[in-house]
Amino acid sequence: MSGAAPFGPGAARTGAMAGDEAAIRARFGLGWPGFRLDVDLALPGRGVIALFGHSGSGKTTLLRCLAGLERAADGYLAVRGELWQDEAQRLFVPTHRRPLGYVFQEASLFAHLTVRRNLEFGLKRVPAASRRIPLDQAIALLGIEPLLDRMPGRLSGGERQRVAIARALATSPRLLLMDEPLAALDVKRKQEILPYLERLHAELDIPVVYVSHAPEEVARLADHVVLLADGRALAVGPIGEVMARLDLPFAHDEDAFVVIDARVAAHDEAYALTRLEFAGLPLWITGLDMPLASRVRARVLARDVSLALTERHDSSILNVLPARVVSLDEADPGRTLVRLDVAGTALLARITRRSAAQLGIVPGRDVYAQVKGVALLR
Amino acid sequence: MITAADLAAIRLTLELAAVTTAALLVVGTPVAWWLARTRSAWKGVVGAVVALPLVLPPTVIGFYLLVALGPHGPVGQLTQALGLGLLPFTFAGLVVGSVFYSLPFVVQPLQNAFEAIGERPLEVAATLRAGAIDTFFSVVLPLARPGFVTATILGFAHTVGEFGVVLMIGGNIPDKTRVVSVQIYDHVEALEYAEAHWLSAGMLVFSFVVLLALYGRKKEMVR
Q: Which domains does chain A have, with CATH numbers?
């Protein structure tokens, strides 16, 4: 089956990970009238993996299969060297015996227990030898010290989700599964929780599978993306690559963008600018209040990138990057979407078809990408 | 005034209600849990059987129990073979009859409580390493507590208030099967209205207090 999986250009990379002991191998086939999930995935055993797609695409079903809350008749799952399911040998580890954490979409705290007792519920069922995350660390990471003696009914939606995340972490999971943990929250609460999720990412070495249908959340949090549609994986790969693929819907969105992982290289106090660096190239951004060498993620919209054949210094644009044209998409009669390679990093540019024709933009051509805007994601 | 026979009937009634309620919780909990969770086609059938005492005249239930538990009935033959003797006209027989008679009053509140909990807390418990039995005691029981309180009160009160089933399979044996409702019947038959009043008023007050406790508590729960 794996040969038929629609991995596309990312296949070589994902295939290489299959042999990695630390990786996640998941194959599920199950369905009911009107829906069928059919995936065969090789995922990295670290970082944040986003399951992305519209509602009904099978994101949550896939997550539930990973958790063992749903049992696929045709299923195989190995997580970081442990076999959790193999229907070929009738093996199925029930959910409560899997060392995982699960954060549900809506409030899922036990109403009859205080926050503290909720946190301890999972913790005390984990053998002492398997506890790697102290409860105090989970509490501090999510900033919920002041809530410990409250009942769940007296917490805000954001607070409840933070407690639910801490409760999952306190079991020292080897895999953390999150089903749109922010979907039920308003924008303000989302902004309240996102920094905690980023800290999680930075401080703990636990792979996270994160279900989302919000591109901005994915861009901010994910390292790896599984794009799902109608129960199938359309694409699997590192976020920078998947977001820039011209054969996928992302790149055709009006707000199409790519993400660039960079680090803070220098501050220019005089002009209140910060120089980021990625792949040895500079990227100027409005002054950041961050220490040197901090790792950041920037977003560049396709419509903010224009192309020139020479490295011009007579324009107001700060960021001019040497690039090579990889491919073009001319589905739109007026505009051309150009995928560029900038020292190994993918970049998208949306220009008019007329400009593309006049400049002679063809695959393989060396150009200069003029980046009008860079936004910081994290 | 209250006679020694009345007191004996009151004591017997409370004893019967207590033992019956305990038996009902033991029997009713798994039945209610199954009814709340199953997707089996038998759900409707079992649910209907459990609810039968709500609509059948108690004499019908009493009659069939009498036949089943009697010397020629299947259950009667079994109890005899096991050396337990025959159940009709004994306290144990009354308990069996009362369990059938009050079953819906225990099963239905429990089933409602279990259904209200839903699937999610069970899944959450599983992701927090709790197995099925662990989850039942640490999550389901506490969350279904209001349902258990309601079931206990209704099961107890309904058993105290039964008459027809008792008369059919228990008869009217002092200290063994003569409960308050039967005692009242005897008083009225003998035209002892004063005594009948004492016991009837007692039952009235008892029932009212029980229901008041139930509905007063309900209000508090909603908050």
A: 2-252 (3.40.50.300), 257-261+293-376 (2.40.50.100)
